[in-house]
Input
Amino acid sequence: MKHALIVPVAFLAALAIPASGLPAAPAAKPVVGNSNAPIDISADSFQADLNAKSATYTGNVIVTQADMKLRANTVKITTVNDKADKVTASGNVVVDSPKSGIVTGDNGVYSVVPRTVVMTGNVVLKKGKDVMRGAQLTVNLTTGQAVLGGGVKSQAQGGGRVQGVFLPNSQ
Output
């Protein structure tokens, strides 16, 4: 289970993309973070399931590495062959990086082998005064490619479209 604690690093790094960089990224760059910095995880409770090979942190979960911070109601880490396989954050997921901004959503899943992160449910990316909104954000850590989708809402619910507001002269 010791490898399971390493995984939130990539989850945090994956979501640390600038909101204003999504619409017109001319060249994809892999998303990287400081994977050598210590990882601190705190929660109201912790439960390990040796049969399911999983670890679950519940209640006010905070995962911190360097200047990156992930907050969620629950973070579950599953392993395969004693290596982290998937990290699932659910309930009021917030990823905050001073350099890249803040990403929020209802749920987030980091799949280790394909190196992908998927944030779902009321996804909002903020950097300074720039804001993007959508239903699902998918980030490929290997390529640095990110896709923000609008979902399939009806026109009365907002049309399920991706929305963005960018202020050209903001920092």
Observations:
- The chain has one domain: 2-165.
- Helices lie at 8-14.
- The two ends are 42 Å apart (CA to CA).
